[in-house]
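Archive entry: two folds, one per protein. Generate the first.
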Amino acid sequence: MYKKIIIFLILISASTIQLFAQNATDALRFSFLLPYGTARYNGIAGAFGALGNDISGIHDNPAGIGVYRMDETTLSFGFLFSNVNSTFQGVSTPSSYDRLLLGNLGLVRRVESKKQTKNKQVFGLTFNRLANLNSEHQIDGVHSSSIGQVWFDRAQGKTDVQLLNSDPYLYYVAFFPYLIDYTDQNTKIIDKLWAYGDNILHRHRRQTQGTISEFAFTYGGNYLNKIQWGVQLGVPFINYQEEVFYTESNYDISSILRSYQLREFLNLTGSGINLKAGVIYRIEQNIRVSAALHTPTLYSIRGNFEVAPSSRTFDNVEHRPNPLVDDNIRFQLTTPLRIQLGGSYIFDNIGLVSAEYHFTDFSTNRLRSSLYSLSEDNRQIKELYQVSHQFRIGTEWRVEKLSLRGGYSLVTSPFNRDSKSGRYNGIHTGFGFRSNEFQADVSYTLFLNSQEFFIYDANYIPAATLKNNRNILMLSLIFRGF
Protein backbone atom coordinates (compact mmCIF):
# COMPACT_ATOMS: atom_id res chain seq x y z
CA MET A 1 0.00 0.00 0.00
CA TYR A 2 2.77 2.45 0.90
CA LYS A 3 4.43 1.93 -2.49
CA LYS A 4 1.13 2.67 -4.27
CA ILE A 5 0.72 5.90 -2.34
CA ILE A 6 4.24 7.08 -3.20
CA ILE A 7 3.68 6.39 -6.91
CA PHE A 8 0.31 8.15 -6.84
CA LEU A 9 1.66 11.27 -5.12
CA ILE A 10 4.58 11.54 -7.53
CA LEU A 11 2.35 11.26 -10.58
CA ILE A 12 -0.40 13.53 -9.29
CA SER A 13 2.13 16.27 -8.53
CA ALA A 14 3.36 16.18 -12.14
CA SER A 15 -0.02 16.47 -13.85
CA THR A 16 -3.43 18.07 -13.66
CA ILE A 17 -5.91 15.44 -12.42
CA GLN A 18 -9.67 15.83 -12.24
CA LEU A 19 -11.31 13.45 -9.76
CA PHE A 20 -14.85 14.80 -9.99
CA ALA A 21 -16.65 14.78 -13.33
CA GLN A 22 -19.73 16.90 -13.99
CA ASN A 23 -22.49 14.85 -15.56
CA ALA A 24 -26.09 14.89 -16.65
CA THR A 25 -27.25 14.59 -13.04
CA ASP A 26 -25.80 17.99 -12.13
CA ALA A 27 -27.57 19.67 -15.04
CA LEU A 28 -30.95 18.20 -14.12
CA ARG A 29 -30.54 18.78 -10.38
CA PHE A 30 -30.23 22.54 -10.82
CA SER A 31 -32.87 23.02 -13.53
CA PHE A 32 -35.76 20.79 -12.37
CA LEU A 33 -38.32 22.83 -10.38
CA LEU A 34 -41.59 21.88 -8.66
CA PRO A 35 -44.38 24.32 -7.61
CA TYR A 36 -42.99 25.92 -4.45
CA GLY A 37 -43.73 29.31 -2.90
CA THR A 38 -46.07 31.21 -0.60
CA ALA A 39 -48.87 29.38 1.21
CA ARG A 40 -51.51 30.79 -1.14
CA TYR A 41 -49.40 29.87 -4.16
CA ASN A 42 -48.88 26.34 -2.85
CA GLY A 43 -52.57 26.02 -1.92
CA ILE A 44 -53.73 26.27 -5.55
CA ALA A 45 -50.79 24.26 -6.98
CA GLY A 46 -48.88 27.31 -8.19
CA ALA A 47 -51.43 28.08 -10.91
CA PHE A 48 -50.87 31.83 -10.59
CA GLY A 49 -49.75 32.79 -14.10
CA ALA A 50 -53.06 34.44 -15.02
CA LEU A 51 -53.86 35.69 -11.49
CA GLY A 52 -50.90 37.65 -10.16
CA ASN A 53 -50.88 39.49 -6.85
CA ASP A 54 -48.47 36.98 -5.25
CA ILE A 55 -44.68 37.29 -4.88
CA SER A 56 -44.10 33.65 -5.81
CA GLY A 57 -46.41 34.00 -8.78
CA ILE A 58 -44.39 36.90 -10.20
CA HIS A 59 -41.32 34.62 -10.30
CA ASP A 60 -43.35 32.50 -12.73
CA ASN A 61 -45.04 35.34 -14.62
CA PRO A 62 -43.68 38.86 -13.91
CA ALA A 63 -46.91 40.36 -15.31
CA GLY A 64 -48.55 39.37 -12.05
CA ILE A 65 -46.99 42.42 -10.42
CA GLY A 66 -49.29 44.63 -12.50
CA VAL A 67 -52.30 43.24 -10.64
CA TYR A 68 -51.18 44.74 -7.28
CA ARG A 69 -53.33 47.64 -6.08
CA MET A 70 -51.65 48.15 -2.70
CA ASP A 71 -48.11 48.07 -1.31
CA GLU A 72 -47.35 44.70 0.29
CA THR A 73 -44.67 43.00 2.37
CA THR A 74 -44.67 39.20 2.53
CA LEU A 75 -42.86 36.64 4.69
CA SER A 76 -43.19 32.85 4.37
CA PHE A 77 -41.70 30.00 6.36
CA GLY A 78 -42.59 26.37 6.90
CA PHE A 79 -41.66 22.78 7.57
CA LEU A 80 -40.61 19.92 5.30
CA PHE A 81 -41.09 16.26 6.20
CA SER A 82 -40.25 13.52 3.76
CA ASN A 83 -40.12 9.75 3.95
CA VAL A 84 -38.52 7.45 1.40
CA ASN A 85 -39.05 3.72 1.30
CA SER A 86 -36.51 1.73 -0.71
CA THR A 87 -36.93 -1.84 -1.95
CA PHE A 88 -33.97 -3.84 -3.23
CA GLN A 89 -33.88 -7.61 -3.73
CA GLY A 90 -36.96 -8.00 -1.55
CA VAL A 91 -35.56 -5.92 1.32
CA SER A 92 -37.54 -2.80 2.31
CA THR A 93 -35.71 0.04 4.10
CA PRO A 94 -37.49 3.20 5.32
CA SER A 95 -35.80 6.60 5.69
CA SER A 96 -37.13 9.97 6.80
CA TYR A 97 -35.90 13.51 7.27
CA ASP A 98 -37.34 16.91 8.22
CA ARG A 99 -36.25 20.54 7.80
CA LEU A 100 -37.42 24.01 8.74
CA LEU A 101 -37.96 26.14 5.65
CA LEU A 102 -37.65 29.78 4.72
CA GLY A 103 -40.06 30.17 1.86
CA ASN A 104 -39.76 33.74 0.65
CA LEU A 105 -39.53 37.38 1.59
CA GLY A 106 -40.46 40.37 -0.51
CA LEU A 107 -41.99 43.76 -0.94
CA VAL A 108 -44.05 45.30 -3.72
CA ARG A 109 -44.45 49.05 -4.14
CA ARG A 110 -46.57 51.13 -6.50
CA VAL A 111 -45.00 53.94 -8.50
CA GLU A 112 -47.12 57.03 -7.86
CA SER A 113 -47.43 59.26 -10.90
CA LYS A 114 -50.18 61.72 -11.81
CA LYS A 115 -49.02 61.63 -15.45
CA GLN A 116 -49.38 57.84 -15.83
CA THR A 117 -53.13 57.49 -15.27
CA LYS A 118 -53.60 54.91 -18.04
CA ASN A 119 -50.52 52.81 -17.32
CA LYS A 120 -50.06 52.28 -13.59
CA GLN A 121 -46.60 50.95 -12.71
CA VAL A 122 -45.32 48.74 -9.88
CA PHE A 123 -41.94 47.33 -8.82
CA GLY A 124 -40.95 44.53 -6.47
CA LEU A 125 -37.86 43.26 -4.66
CA THR A 126 -38.23 39.59 -3.75
CA PHE A 127 -36.38 36.60 -2.40
CA ASN A 128 -37.95 33.30 -3.38
CA ARG A 129 -36.99 29.71 -2.62
CA LEU A 130 -37.19 27.95 -5.98
CA ALA A 131 -36.22 24.44 -4.86
CA ASN A 132 -35.44 22.51 -1.71
CA LEU A 133 -32.72 19.92 -2.38
CA ASN A 134 -32.84 18.11 0.98
CA SER A 135 -33.26 14.35 0.73
CA GLU A 136 -32.15 11.09 2.31
CA HIS A 137 -32.46 7.41 1.48
CA GLN A 138 -30.87 4.09 2.37
CA ILE A 139 -30.84 0.93 0.24
CA ASP A 140 -30.04 -2.52 1.70
CA GLY A 141 -30.05 -5.93 0.02
CA VAL A 142 -28.08 -9.00 -1.01
CA HIS A 143 -26.83 -9.59 -4.56
CA SER A 144 -23.99 -11.55 -6.12
CA SER A 145 -22.52 -8.65 -8.11
CA SER A 146 -19.85 -6.25 -6.88
CA ILE A 147 -18.90 -2.72 -7.86
CA GLY A 148 -15.38 -4.12 -8.08
CA GLN A 149 -16.40 -6.06 -11.19
CA VAL A 150 -17.54 -2.82 -12.85
CA TRP A 151 -14.20 -1.18 -12.15
CA PHE A 152 -12.19 -4.24 -13.10
CA ASP A 153 -13.85 -4.38 -16.52
CA ARG A 154 -13.00 -0.70 -17.05
CA ALA A 155 -9.38 -1.06 -15.93
CA GLN A 156 -8.45 -4.52 -17.23
CA GLY A 157 -5.49 -4.49 -19.60
CA LYS A 158 -4.15 -1.09 -18.52
CA THR A 159 -1.01 -0.54 -16.50
CA ASP A 160 -1.27 1.28 -13.19
CA VAL A 161 0.19 4.45 -14.74
CA GLN A 162 -2.18 4.30 -17.71
CA LEU A 163 -5.12 3.91 -15.35
CA LEU A 164 -4.00 6.90 -13.29
CA ASN A 165 -3.70 9.11 -16.35
CA SER A 166 -6.99 8.01 -17.93
CA ASP A 167 -9.19 7.60 -14.85
CA PRO A 168 -7.68 8.94 -11.59
CA TYR A 169 -10.93 8.41 -9.71
CA LEU A 170 -10.99 4.71 -10.56
CA TYR A 171 -7.29 4.41 -9.72
CA TYR A 172 -7.90 5.78 -6.26
CA VAL A 173 -11.14 4.02 -5.28
CA ALA A 174 -10.34 0.58 -6.75
CA PHE A 175 -6.57 0.15 -7.18
CA PHE A 176 -5.53 1.81 -3.92
CA PRO A 177 -7.66 -0.37 -1.62
CA TYR A 178 -6.70 -3.51 -3.58
CA LEU A 179 -10.11 -4.13 -5.06
CA ILE A 180 -8.24 -4.61 -8.35
CA ASP A 181 -4.55 -5.37 -8.78
CA TYR A 182 -1.85 -6.82 -11.06
CA THR A 183 0.02 -10.13 -10.75
CA ASP A 184 3.11 -9.33 -12.85
CA GLN A 185 5.43 -6.84 -11.13
CA ASN A 186 7.25 -6.24 -14.41
CA THR A 187 4.35 -5.32 -16.70
CA LYS A 188 2.05 -4.02 -13.93
CA ILE A 189 -0.93 -4.71 -16.16
CA ILE A 190 -4.16 -4.91 -14.13
CA ASP A 191 -5.48 -8.47 -14.37
CA LYS A 192 -6.75 -9.38 -10.90
CA LEU A 193 -10.06 -8.80 -9.12
CA TRP A 194 -10.14 -9.61 -5.42
CA ALA A 195 -13.51 -11.33 -5.28
CA TYR A 196 -15.95 -11.59 -2.38
CA GLY A 197 -18.03 -14.64 -3.13
CA ASP A 198 -21.66 -14.84 -4.19
CA ASN A 199 -23.64 -13.35 -1.28
CA ILE A 200 -22.72 -9.70 -0.92
CA LEU A 201 -24.64 -7.37 1.34
CA HIS A 202 -24.98 -3.98 -0.34
CA ARG A 203 -25.73 -0.79 1.56
CA HIS A 204 -26.11 2.58 -0.11
CA ARG A 205 -26.92 5.66 1.97
CA ARG A 206 -27.27 9.07 0.35
CA GLN A 207 -28.02 12.38 2.06
CA THR A 208 -28.34 15.74 0.34
CA GLN A 209 -28.79 19.26 1.67
CA GLY A 210 -29.27 22.47 -0.22
CA THR A 211 -31.47 25.02 -1.89
CA ILE A 212 -31.93 27.01 -5.06
CA SER A 213 -32.98 30.55 -4.17
CA GLU A 214 -33.51 33.65 -6.28
CA PHE A 215 -33.29 37.37 -5.67
CA ALA A 216 -35.29 39.29 -8.24
CA PHE A 217 -36.17 42.81 -9.28
CA THR A 218 -39.52 43.00 -11.06
CA TYR A 219 -41.02 45.96 -12.87
CA GLY A 220 -44.43 46.03 -14.50
CA GLY A 221 -47.64 47.83 -15.02
CA ASN A 222 -51.38 47.76 -15.63
CA TYR A 223 -52.67 49.33 -18.83
CA LEU A 224 -56.31 50.41 -18.62
CA ASN A 225 -56.99 47.48 -16.28
CA LYS A 226 -56.93 45.35 -19.44
CA ILE A 227 -53.31 44.32 -19.92
CA GLN A 228 -50.84 43.60 -17.16
CA TRP A 229 -47.17 43.34 -18.16
CA GLY A 230 -43.94 42.71 -16.35
CA VAL A 231 -40.22 42.04 -16.72
CA GLN A 232 -37.88 40.57 -14.17
CA LEU A 233 -34.15 40.32 -13.61
CA GLY A 234 -33.37 37.22 -11.54
CA VAL A 235 -30.19 36.29 -9.70
CA PRO A 236 -30.46 32.69 -8.49
CA PHE A 237 -28.08 31.09 -5.99
CA ILE A 238 -27.19 27.42 -5.55
CA ASN A 239 -26.03 25.82 -2.33
CA TYR A 240 -25.71 22.03 -2.44
CA GLN A 241 -24.03 19.28 -0.43
CA GLU A 242 -24.20 15.54 -1.01
CA GLU A 243 -22.72 12.69 1.02
CA VAL A 244 -22.81 9.06 -0.10
CA PHE A 245 -21.73 6.00 1.91
CA TYR A 246 -21.51 2.77 -0.07
CA THR A 247 -20.61 -0.53 1.58
CA GLU A 248 -20.22 -4.11 0.39
CA SER A 249 -19.94 -6.78 3.09
CA ASN A 250 -19.24 -10.49 2.71
CA TYR A 251 -19.29 -13.34 5.23
CA ASP A 252 -17.88 -16.10 3.00
CA ILE A 253 -14.52 -16.87 4.65
CA SER A 254 -13.28 -18.63 1.50
CA SER A 255 -13.08 -15.25 -0.27
CA ILE A 256 -10.33 -12.67 0.11
CA LEU A 257 -12.15 -9.47 0.99
CA ARG A 258 -14.51 -9.09 3.90
CA SER A 259 -15.75 -5.56 3.23
CA TYR A 260 -15.33 -2.50 1.05
CA GLN A 261 -16.52 1.02 1.85
CA LEU A 262 -16.61 4.18 -0.22
CA ARG A 263 -17.47 7.65 1.07
CA GLU A 264 -18.02 10.56 -1.31
CA PHE A 265 -18.70 14.16 -0.34
CA LEU A 266 -19.66 16.86 -2.84
CA ASN A 267 -20.04 20.57 -2.10
CA LEU A 268 -21.21 22.99 -4.80
CA THR A 269 -22.10 26.67 -4.71
CA GLY A 270 -22.97 28.97 -7.56
CA SER A 271 -24.85 31.98 -8.82
CA GLY A 272 -26.48 32.91 -12.08
CA ILE A 273 -28.58 35.40 -13.96
CA ASN A 274 -31.76 35.24 -16.04
CA LEU A 275 -34.49 37.40 -17.53
CA LYS A 276 -38.24 36.83 -17.55
CA ALA A 277 -41.10 38.59 -19.28
CA GLY A 278 -44.83 38.05 -19.19
CA VAL A 279 -48.27 39.39 -19.94
CA ILE A 280 -51.81 38.93 -18.60
CA TYR A 281 -54.75 39.85 -20.82
CA ARG A 282 -58.32 40.27 -19.59
CA ILE A 283 -60.59 38.98 -22.33
CA GLU A 284 -63.56 39.91 -20.16
CA GLN A 285 -63.76 41.07 -16.58
CA ASN A 286 -63.86 37.49 -15.30
CA ILE A 287 -61.63 35.78 -17.88
CA ARG A 288 -57.85 36.14 -18.01
CA VAL A 289 -55.15 34.48 -20.11
CA SER A 290 -51.41 34.72 -19.63
CA ALA A 291 -48.05 33.91 -21.18
CA ALA A 292 -44.51 34.12 -19.86
CA LEU A 293 -41.03 33.41 -21.16
CA HIS A 294 -37.94 32.61 -19.06
CA THR A 295 -34.54 32.90 -20.69
CA PRO A 296 -31.99 30.19 -19.87
CA THR A 297 -30.24 30.78 -16.55
CA LEU A 298 -26.47 31.18 -16.87
CA TYR A 299 -24.84 29.63 -13.78
CA SER A 300 -21.23 29.76 -12.66
CA ILE A 301 -20.60 26.90 -10.22
CA ARG A 302 -17.60 25.92 -8.12
CA GLY A 303 -16.91 23.51 -5.31
CA ASN A 304 -14.95 20.57 -4.02
CA PHE A 305 -15.21 16.79 -4.05
CA GLU A 306 -13.80 14.34 -1.51
CA VAL A 307 -13.50 10.58 -1.84
CA ALA A 308 -12.36 8.07 0.79
CA PRO A 309 -12.25 4.31 0.01
CA SER A 310 -11.27 1.48 2.36
CA SER A 311 -11.25 -2.32 2.37
CA ARG A 312 -10.70 -5.09 4.91
CA THR A 313 -9.62 -8.70 4.35
CA PHE A 314 -10.64 -11.74 6.39
CA ASP A 315 -7.23 -11.77 8.08
CA ASN A 316 -8.20 -8.30 9.39
CA VAL A 317 -5.80 -6.29 7.23
CA GLU A 318 -7.25 -2.87 6.44
CA HIS A 319 -6.37 -0.76 3.41
CA ARG A 320 -7.45 2.84 4.09
CA PRO A 321 -5.71 5.60 2.12
CA ASN A 322 -6.17 9.18 3.25
CA PRO A 323 -9.17 11.00 1.75
CA LEU A 324 -8.41 12.63 -1.57
CA VAL A 325 -9.85 16.05 -2.38
CA ASP A 326 -10.49 17.78 -5.69
CA ASP A 327 -10.95 21.44 -4.72
CA ASN A 328 -10.76 22.78 -8.26
CA ILE A 329 -14.31 22.18 -9.51
CA ARG A 330 -15.20 25.00 -11.89
CA PHE A 331 -17.92 24.83 -14.52
CA GLN A 332 -20.79 26.76 -16.08
CA LEU A 333 -24.34 25.52 -16.60
CA THR A 334 -26.92 26.92 -19.01
CA THR A 335 -30.42 25.73 -18.11
CA PRO A 336 -33.31 25.35 -20.58
CA LEU A 337 -35.65 28.03 -21.87
CA ARG A 338 -39.06 27.88 -20.18
CA ILE A 339 -42.45 28.72 -21.67
CA GLN A 340 -45.60 29.15 -19.56
CA LEU A 341 -49.24 29.57 -20.57
CA GLY A 342 -52.19 30.08 -18.25
CA GLY A 343 -55.83 30.96 -17.92
CA SER A 344 -58.28 31.72 -15.12
CA TYR A 345 -61.95 32.36 -14.50
CA ILE A 346 -63.00 34.54 -11.56
CA PHE A 347 -66.48 34.15 -10.07
CA ASP A 348 -66.95 37.77 -8.99
CA ASN A 349 -65.75 38.01 -5.37
CA ILE A 350 -66.52 34.47 -4.24
CA GLY A 351 -64.05 32.22 -6.03
CA LEU A 352 -61.79 31.37 -8.94
CA VAL A 353 -60.43 28.51 -11.03
CA SER A 354 -56.98 28.75 -12.58
CA ALA A 355 -54.86 26.48 -14.78
CA GLU A 356 -51.30 26.65 -16.08
CA TYR A 357 -48.95 24.79 -18.43
CA HIS A 358 -45.13 24.82 -18.41
CA PHE A 359 -42.84 23.61 -21.21
CA THR A 360 -39.18 22.76 -20.53
CA ASP A 361 -36.79 20.82 -22.77
CA PHE A 362 -34.15 19.39 -20.41
CA SER A 363 -32.08 18.00 -23.28
CA THR A 364 -30.96 21.60 -23.96
CA ASN A 365 -29.03 21.84 -20.67
CA ARG A 366 -25.38 22.63 -21.42
CA LEU A 367 -22.21 22.30 -19.33
CA ARG A 368 -18.97 24.19 -20.04
CA SER A 369 -15.60 24.56 -18.38
CA SER A 370 -12.33 26.29 -19.20
CA LEU A 371 -10.42 23.59 -17.29
CA TYR A 372 -11.61 20.41 -19.00
CA SER A 373 -13.77 19.16 -21.84
CA LEU A 374 -17.43 18.39 -21.09
CA SER A 375 -18.45 17.34 -24.60
CA GLU A 376 -19.18 13.76 -23.49
CA ASP A 377 -21.37 15.02 -20.63
CA ASN A 378 -23.34 17.22 -23.02
CA ARG A 379 -23.77 14.27 -25.36
CA GLN A 380 -25.25 12.27 -22.46
CA ILE A 381 -27.61 15.14 -21.61
CA LYS A 382 -29.00 15.13 -25.16
CA GLU A 383 -29.40 11.36 -25.05
CA LEU A 384 -30.90 10.98 -21.56
CA TYR A 385 -33.33 13.91 -21.31
CA GLN A 386 -36.42 15.12 -23.12
CA VAL A 387 -39.22 17.66 -22.91
CA SER A 388 -41.04 17.74 -19.57
CA HIS A 389 -44.60 19.06 -19.34
CA GLN A 390 -45.99 20.58 -16.17
CA PHE A 391 -49.71 20.98 -15.56
CA ARG A 392 -51.23 22.90 -12.66
CA ILE A 393 -54.84 23.50 -11.75
CA GLY A 394 -56.19 25.16 -8.62
CA THR A 395 -59.23 26.78 -7.11
CA GLU A 396 -60.01 29.21 -4.29
CA TRP A 397 -63.37 29.99 -2.64
CA ARG A 398 -64.11 32.75 -0.16
CA VAL A 399 -66.55 32.87 2.74
CA GLU A 400 -66.40 36.43 4.06
CA LYS A 401 -62.78 36.82 5.31
CA LEU A 402 -61.88 33.16 5.01
CA SER A 403 -60.58 31.37 1.90
CA LEU A 404 -60.42 27.66 1.12
CA ARG A 405 -58.01 26.36 -1.54
CA GLY A 406 -57.14 23.19 -3.37
CA GLY A 407 -55.19 22.07 -6.41
CA TYR A 408 -53.34 19.39 -8.31
CA SER A 409 -50.03 19.46 -10.18
CA LEU A 410 -48.41 16.97 -12.53
CA VAL A 411 -44.81 17.07 -13.75
CA THR A 412 -43.98 14.55 -16.48
CA SER A 413 -40.63 12.80 -16.49
CA PRO A 414 -37.62 14.60 -17.99
CA PHE A 415 -35.99 11.21 -18.71
CA ASN A 416 -36.03 10.05 -22.30
CA ARG A 417 -36.35 6.32 -21.59
CA ASP A 418 -38.01 6.33 -18.19
CA SER A 419 -41.47 7.90 -17.97
CA LYS A 420 -41.84 6.87 -14.31
CA SER A 421 -38.79 8.01 -12.33
CA GLY A 422 -39.00 11.75 -12.93
CA ARG A 423 -42.79 12.02 -12.70
CA TYR A 424 -44.24 13.97 -9.76
CA ASN A 425 -47.86 14.22 -8.66
CA GLY A 426 -48.73 17.06 -6.30
CA ILE A 427 -51.79 17.35 -4.06
CA HIS A 428 -52.33 20.87 -2.71
CA THR A 429 -54.68 22.35 -0.14
CA GLY A 430 -54.84 25.36 2.16
CA PHE A 431 -56.84 28.12 3.77
CA GLY A 432 -56.39 31.76 4.63
CA PHE A 433 -57.67 34.77 6.53
CA ARG A 434 -57.74 38.22 4.93
CA SER A 435 -58.51 41.70 6.23
CA ASN A 436 -57.82 45.07 4.65
CA GLU A 437 -54.27 45.37 6.03
CA PHE A 438 -53.29 41.81 6.96
CA GLN A 439 -53.46 38.34 5.47
CA ALA A 440 -52.38 34.94 6.87
CA ASP A 441 -52.31 31.77 4.75
CA VAL A 442 -51.52 28.14 5.53
CA SER A 443 -50.95 25.39 2.97
CA TYR A 444 -50.17 21.70 2.87
CA THR A 445 -48.57 20.05 -0.16
CA LEU A 446 -47.87 16.39 -0.79
CA PHE A 447 -45.56 15.44 -3.68
CA LEU A 448 -45.58 11.77 -4.68
CA ASN A 449 -42.78 10.19 -6.68
CA SER A 450 -41.63 6.64 -7.41
CA GLN A 451 -38.36 5.99 -9.19
CA GLU A 452 -35.83 3.35 -10.11
CA PHE A 453 -32.37 3.88 -8.63
CA PHE A 454 -29.18 2.02 -9.53
CA ILE A 455 -26.51 2.03 -6.83
CA TYR A 456 -23.97 1.53 -9.62
CA ASP A 457 -23.83 0.48 -13.30
CA ALA A 458 -27.25 -0.83 -14.44
CA ASN A 459 -25.56 -3.51 -16.57
CA TYR A 460 -24.31 -5.24 -13.42
CA ILE A 461 -27.02 -4.85 -10.78
CA PRO A 462 -30.84 -4.58 -10.72
CA ALA A 463 -32.57 -1.36 -9.78
CA ALA A 464 -33.87 -0.45 -6.37
CA THR A 465 -37.31 1.17 -6.13
CA LEU A 466 -37.60 4.42 -4.18
CA LYS A 467 -41.04 5.67 -3.14
CA ASN A 468 -40.91 9.25 -1.92
CA ASN A 469 -43.66 11.14 -0.07
CA ARG A 470 -42.65 14.79 0.33
CA ASN A 471 -44.80 16.85 2.74
CA ILE A 472 -44.56 20.65 2.90
CA LEU A 473 -46.40 22.82 5.42
CA MET A 474 -46.14 26.57 4.75
CA LEU A 475 -47.28 29.73 6.57
CA SER A 476 -47.34 33.16 4.88
CA LEU A 477 -47.91 36.55 6.49
CA ILE A 478 -48.80 39.52 4.30
CA PHE A 479 -48.87 43.15 5.47
CA ARG A 480 -50.58 45.68 3.19
CA GLY A 481 -49.78 49.37 3.08
CA PHE A 482 -46.47 48.54 4.80
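Generate the second and append.
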Amino acid sequence: MTNVFERFQKEKDCYLYNRELEGAAIKIGDSKKAIAYAENATRSLREISKLEKYIEELEQIKFIVVQIDNDHEEFMRSRI
Protein backbone atom coordinates (compact mmCIF):
# COMPACT_ATOMS: atom_id res chain seq x y z
CA MET A 1 0.00 0.00 0.00
CA THR A 2 1.38 3.39 -0.94
CA ASN A 3 1.35 6.29 1.47
CA VAL A 4 -0.31 9.63 0.82
CA PHE A 5 2.92 11.31 -0.29
CA GLU A 6 3.64 8.55 -2.82
CA ARG A 7 0.08 8.75 -4.17
CA PHE A 8 0.38 12.52 -4.43
CA GLN A 9 3.71 12.24 -6.28
CA LYS A 10 2.32 9.64 -8.69
CA GLU A 11 -0.70 11.78 -9.49
CA LYS A 12 1.51 14.81 -10.02
CA ASP A 13 3.75 12.83 -12.37
CA CYS A 14 0.70 11.47 -14.20
CA TYR A 15 -0.70 14.99 -14.57
CA LEU A 16 2.56 16.35 -16.02
CA TYR A 17 2.99 13.35 -18.33
CA ASN A 18 -0.53 13.68 -19.73
CA ARG A 19 -0.12 17.42 -20.26
CA GLU A 20 3.05 16.73 -22.26
CA LEU A 21 1.27 14.13 -24.36
CA GLU A 22 -1.68 16.46 -24.83
CA GLY A 23 0.63 19.18 -26.15
CA ALA A 24 2.34 16.74 -28.52
CA ALA A 25 -1.01 15.50 -29.81
CA ILE A 26 -2.17 19.07 -30.42
CA LYS A 27 1.02 19.81 -32.38
CA ILE A 28 0.37 16.93 -34.78
CA GLY A 29 -3.34 17.72 -35.02
CA ASP A 30 -4.65 14.61 -33.24
CA SER A 31 -7.53 16.16 -31.34
CA LYS A 32 -8.97 12.82 -30.15
CA LYS A 33 -5.74 11.90 -28.37
CA ALA A 34 -5.34 15.45 -27.06
CA ILE A 35 -8.80 15.27 -25.51
CA ALA A 36 -8.07 11.87 -23.94
CA TYR A 37 -4.81 13.14 -22.45
CA ALA A 38 -6.55 16.28 -21.17
CA GLU A 39 -9.21 14.13 -19.50
CA ASN A 40 -6.52 11.99 -17.86
CA ALA A 41 -4.74 15.11 -16.60
CA THR A 42 -8.02 16.44 -15.22
CA ARG A 43 -8.61 13.13 -13.43
CA SER A 44 -5.19 13.43 -11.81
CA LEU A 45 -5.98 16.98 -10.67
CA ARG A 46 -9.18 15.70 -9.05
CA GLU A 47 -7.21 13.02 -7.21
CA ILE A 48 -4.62 15.58 -6.09
CA SER A 49 -7.44 17.75 -4.75
CA LYS A 50 -8.87 14.78 -2.83
CA LEU A 51 -5.46 14.02 -1.35
CA GLU A 52 -5.01 17.65 -0.30
CA LYS A 53 -8.38 17.55 1.50
CA TYR A 54 -7.42 14.25 3.15
CA ILE A 55 -4.15 15.76 4.37
CA GLU A 56 -6.02 18.78 5.78
CA GLU A 57 -8.38 16.44 7.64
CA LEU A 58 -5.45 14.49 9.07
CA GLU A 59 -3.88 17.74 10.29
CA GLN A 60 -7.15 18.69 12.01
CA ILE A 61 -7.35 15.26 13.65
CA LYS A 62 -3.74 15.54 14.80
CA PHE A 63 -4.49 18.94 16.34
CA ILE A 64 -7.45 17.52 18.24
CA VAL A 65 -5.47 14.50 19.46
CA VAL A 66 -2.68 16.79 20.71
CA GLN A 67 -5.26 18.91 22.55
CA ILE A 68 -6.77 15.81 24.16
CA ASP A 69 -3.34 14.56 25.16
CA ASN A 70 -2.41 17.94 26.66
CA ASP A 71 -5.72 18.12 28.54
CA HIS A 72 -5.16 14.62 29.89
CA GLU A 73 -1.63 15.45 31.05
CA GLU A 74 -2.90 18.60 32.74
CA PHE A 75 -5.67 16.62 34.42
CA MET A 76 -3.20 14.00 35.65
CA ARG A 77 -0.86 16.69 37.06
CA SER A 78 -3.78 18.35 38.84
CA ARG A 79 -4.56 15.10 40.65
CA ILE A 80 -1.10 14.76 42.12
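Annotation attached to the second fold: The chain has a mean pLDDT of 93. Helices lie at 4-27, 31-78.
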